[in-house]
Structures are given as C-alpha cells and as structure tokens.
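forwarding from the other thread:

> can someone predict this with glutamic acid?

sure thing
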Amino acid sequence: MDTTVRVRFAPSPTGGLHLGGVRTVLYNYLFARQHRGEFVLRIEDTDQNRYVQGAEAYIFDCLQWCGLEPDESVVHGGAYGPYRQSERKENYRQYAEQLVRDGHAYYAFDTPEELEKMRQENRSETNPSPQYDHAVRNRMKNSLTLKEEEVNRLIKEGIPHVIRILIPKEERVSFTDMIRGEVSFETSVVDDKVLLKADGMPTYHLAVVVDDFLMKITHAFRGEEWLPSAPVHILLWKYLFGLDKMPQWAHLPLILGPNGKLSKRDGAKYGFPVFAMNWTDPVTGELTEGFKEKGFLPEAFINLLALLGWNDGTDQEIFRLEELVEKFSMDRVHSGGARFDYEKAKWFNHEWIKASNAGRLMPFVKPVLEAKGLPVNDESFLEKIITLVKERCHLLPDFYDQSFFFFKSPEKIDLEAIQPKWNEQKQLFFAEVIRNFELDPEWKASILESNFKEIAAANHIKPGDVLLPFRIMLVGGKFGPGVFDIAEILGRDETIHRIKETLLRLS
Ligand code: GLU
C-alpha cells in the first residue's frame, strides 16, 4: 500500500523552545522530506492553565529562523485543520463518550477535596503519591460505583465531572519503537488518566491520539519523556481506532547537560543557550538567551542538533540540510541520552562560519556591527573584512571584536606591550616604513610585507621584533588577522596615520 508519510510536531505553547524540541522538529522534517511526505505542526493548547501569551508565534519564528517550515499548520494551512487543538474541542467528547459506552472509560465526579482525601489515606512509604487506579477506583465517586440513575442525574445537574480511562488491571501492552525496538508495559502500574476534563477540554492523552488519527499521522516522533504515557496511548488506539492504525513511534533520546537532563537552569548556570531564540517570559519578564541571539548560524544549529543522538556511521560531522535529508535514518538514532557540549556547539558554528562565503554571512554580520554603531553601508568593504576575519570567529558577535578597528581608530593602544623593548632603532625603522608606504604605488598586502621586511633587514632588525608593535599601532592590541592584510584594507592614509599617532605617543 502506498501511504503518504505524515509526521507531526505537536508542541504545547508554554514557553521557550528547548533545543530538544527543535531536534524533534528537525528529525520530523528530515524524515518527511526523505519520504516525500508531509510535515504537520499541531498546537497542543488544551491545557488552558499553561497557556502562555506569545509562545505560539515564538515557535513559528524559531522554525522560520531554522529554515524548518512545516507543510501544514495554523500559519501554513492544510486539509486537516484546525491545527490548534483548542479549536477542535468538539471533536474529542464523542470519542470519550464512545469509550464510556464500550466500558473502557467512566465518569468521575470526585471533588478536589475527595481526591486529596484519597491521596492522604493511601499515602505510605512504598506509595508516596497514590494514583487514581484499579486499587482505589471502586471506592471513589464515579460511574463504576454509582447507580446509573444517579450518574445521569449528576450529569444533568451539571455537576463537574471528568472522564477517566479504565486501565485494565493486569495486561501487558507493547509496541515497536523505531529506535528502541520492542517496548512493553504492565498496566498494573498505570493510573486511570483523565481523558476529558470538567471544562470539556480533552487532556493531552485523548487529544494526541484522536488528532494523530484524524490527521492521518503515520509516524510520531517525540522525546523520551513521553514513553511512560505510551501504554495509555496504545490502549486508546486499541479501543478507538485499532492498533493497525497506530502511527509508528520513535522516542528520541534525552539531551543531557552537565548534570542529567539539560535544563533551562543549566543554561543560566553555565552561560550557554538552551532555547532556539531569546524568550522573555511575559509574566516574570525573565529573559532566556537563544542560540540565534548568541550568534549561531541556523545551518550550524541544525547541524549540531542532528548529531545530538544520530550519526551516519562514519566520522563525518559537518552536514548540510540537504545531505541530512539524504542520509538521516531513524535506526541510526541511539537510545541512550545525547550529551550537549557547548564547546562542541561553538566548534560547529566556527566550522560553518569558515565554510560560508561573505555573501552568506553578510546578513548576519551586518546587524552585529550595526548594533555596535559601526557604519555598514559599504558592502564591498564589509565583504573584504568578513572574508579576512571569519576564520577567527566562533560566534557572530566575534566579528565585532575582530573587525571594529577597520571602522574607527582603536580607543586604547596597548603601549605597555611596546614600550619595554622600544628604542631609537625601531623609531627610525618605522619612520622609514612611513616614507616607503607613502611612496609605494601599489597598496597590496604581499608588497607591503616584503617592503616591511626588506627595510627591517637593511636596519638589522628581526621582523619579529617590529611586527607586534606594528599590529598594536593598527588595532590597539595583540589580536586580529594578518597585519599586512589589515593594512591593505585600512588603506594607505589610515595606516600611515595610525603609525604616526603611536610613534608620537612613544617618543
Ligand atoms: N504536546 C506534547 C509536547 O508538548 C507532544 C508530545 C507528543 O509529541 O506526543 O511535547
């Protein structure tokens, strides 16, 4: 049978997009492109208590920055909408009621106080957080314990109630995970999860199954943290649609930080980004830095994410998106946690900066320089600078540190690094360099270098003894690319001016 591959990313818009989330997007995207399938983005916003203003738009901004756009979504449209679960509310109740009719679910009328009482009564050392399950359901206020007329009356009177799944007491449920192989669960430890809440909204468990079915999802990839929910979902598939309709699942490995699962707190503590883009919590105003603003190129970000849990079986580490589409395979994703190493992440970015031409880097570098007040109108000047300094940049803001001196004279000249070894001979040497540079007809790095060295030889000076002072005169300190390349870009007048200025201060 020729079924179109349909995958989905199903975020809850509750805050910043963690790099684990973007990796899920990426694997979905690669799998869809590889199979000429469709990639759906569904907003899972049924939990109104966790709704966060701006979080949905932010997710789309992140995907746009990464270049991982879905085929169907709230923004992109599609034949299986609405793509926001809160707008699909009326779809879910019928399935919950069908489950009640078939004896796989029941109405529960327990008040929050009654639930708390149950927990207190059953709490013990071996069972610190008692669940609503086979052990207690027959002592609670639900359609399993109440008479039918009573249930109907309570419903009619509008008494708040939920629908819970009736988890079989002793059953083994299993599925084949694309990464982990056969995974099975004992239902005796699974609780009777709420499927439909008192406000008529479904919970994640019901909504995810119903929507994966209605949206004809063939493969569902999600983080390993969802594995414990799998038995509930398998049972729902079995009761509602048939297991043969269930998508193939892959539970992606956790991303590990310095101490276990990588968290937002790790980012704050160790000074690295965890979210794709800057996220400001609309309530607390707290800003969490993103990879974008930290100065990562989207292609580097994607590359490093692809390798957090996958490799192609060789030592290759640098992959373009098209190459990933070709080579990615779920059976090469490992099941063990994938360690995130920020130094390695910066290495990826450095490799991508080096490999990108000035034209590609221009739209990223320009704003960095502009934000620091440098004039960026002359693109051909910028191109030369970018080409010259990119080797030295790991993050995009490094372009400022490596190139500000092309735009303005350095404010601070590290005279202390020159003074101890400064003498008359060097003073005369630079005076001669100035004369030579003033006359030299062709302003080219290679020619400047050979002239500089010839003058040094004629004055019995080792070039090494005057190169550092020359660099400091031009850029202010012991950094920057090749000093003759700098001089070439600065131009004759500015180079000579900077040498003269420093000589004055040294004499
Ligand atoms: N809404 C869930 C989340 O926020 C989706 C989990 C899944 O993909 O099934 O991650």
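The domain at 88-205 is CATH 3.90.800.10 (Glutamyl-tRNA Synthetase; domain 3). thats all i got for now
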